[in-house]
Write a structure and sequence with these properties.
Length: about 350
């Protein structure tokens, strides 16, 4: 080697030594192939398991409304009252008629007993030929009439009891109670309005039992059923415990997707029906090429990593896929065994130092 080449070689060594020494001190990670369950993410909507709209069962005037929209109610709490004067009057009339019928029934029982005794006495006298046949026939007729009277009054008593029961049921309809604990979502009537049977009065939902509904494309049913719930996450990043999912066995005719209902096991604060959530489901195992997510840098619309190869730092463009935990899937640009620098800033600093910046 010519002596004139020594200064050039010496300068090259001086340039490489800082870069190699700095590269040895940076944190690196190997590109690895990992077999993990496939992850599918869907947009879900929260809905209440218990939701109802109560309606009127009678024609009556509203005289009292105790709750309004956004009010919380307890189970069986009175939420609305109707005017009940007319129904109370009907009930009192029915009860009075029932008492009268029962009094007549007791009288008829006494007459029946008397007629039966008289018929027996006349029959005995007739057997001894002490009375005529007409007297016996009259006694038997009186007994039959007494028996008929008792049967008629017994039937009338049942009818009166039915009237009383009907009036009591109608009276109970004048008080509307919450079917379960929840929150009022809509009020559909005002005090002073006349309600008719079947008219909607008030809507509400229970926040004690919520579920998430997602739509699964038909092509993914075989891969995702039975469903394995990986995570249910709200927009604020909070995860929620989920129970066993239930498939709605009917496809949407427009999208050909199937609904999947996922119950939430714990009551969540500030989570209401209609809220949007993200649901992750696990599918069949798949093999992915993964790097630490922080190793991937974005340069405009391009993604890249700093690759450490043969003690040299290279900026390698890659095509990333989805994020899996703290790692990022790489679809193209790397292969298993490649070494990347975890902290891109360290790589940039080493390159700048090597260039004398």
């Amino acid at each position: 080697m010519k002596l004139s080449h020594y200064p050039v070689l010496f300068a090259l060594c001086l340039w490489l030594l800082p870069q190699l020494g700095a590269a040895d001190s940076v944190a690196t990670a190997s590109v690895t192939l990992k077999t993990i369950p496939a992850q599918y993410q869907f947009d879900g909507v929260v809905e209440a398991v218990n939701r109802a709209t109560v309606s009127s069962r009678i024609a009556a005037e509203v005289i009292e409304i105790n709750v309004d929209v956004n009010d919380r109610v307890a189970q069986d709490q009175v939420i609305l009252r109707f005017r009940d004067d007319e129904i109370k009057t009907r009930l009192m009339r029915a009860e009075a008629n029932l008492l009268a019928e029962k009094a007549q029934y007791q009288e008829a029982l006494a007459r029946q007993k008397e007629a039966q005794a008289e018929a027996g006495r006349i029959a005995d006298l007739f057997a001894r030929k002490q009375v005529t046949r007409s007297a016996l026939d009259k006694a038997e007729a009186d007994k039959a009439a007494a028996n008929a009277r008792v049967n008629v009054l017994a039937a009338q008593i049942k009818a009166r009891e039915a009237e009383v029961a009907e009036a009591k049921v109608a009276l109970s309809y004048t008080v509307v109670q919450a079917p379960y604990a929840g929150i009022v979502t809509e009020r559909l009537i005002e005090v002073g309005e006349m309600a008719s049977p079947g008219q909607l009065l008030m809507s509400g939902v229970s926040l004690d039992s919520l579920r998430v509904v997602i739509q699964i494309p038909q092509r993914l049913l075989d891969d995702l059923l039975p469903a394995r719930i990986a995570n249910v996450e709200t927009i604020d990043g909070k995860s929620h415990l989920a129970g066993e999912a239930t498939l709605v066995p009917q496809a949407d005719p427009a999208s050909h997707s199937f609904g999947l209902r996922i119950p939430l096991l714990a009551q969540a604060d500030h989570l209401y029906p209609g809220s949007s959530v993200k649901v992750s489901l696990e599918g069949p195992d798949e093999t992915l090429l993964l790097v630490p997510a922080q190793a991937v840098v974005q340069r405009g619309e391009a993604s890249a990593v700093y690759l450490l190869k043969d003690d040299d730092i290279q900026l390698r463009q890659v095509r990333p896929g989805r994020t899996v935990g703290s790692e990022r899937e790489i679809l193209a640009g790397l292969q298993a065994g490649d070494v990347v620098i975890i902290e891109p800033r360290q790589a940039v600093g080493i390159i700048k130092n090597s260039q004398g910046e």
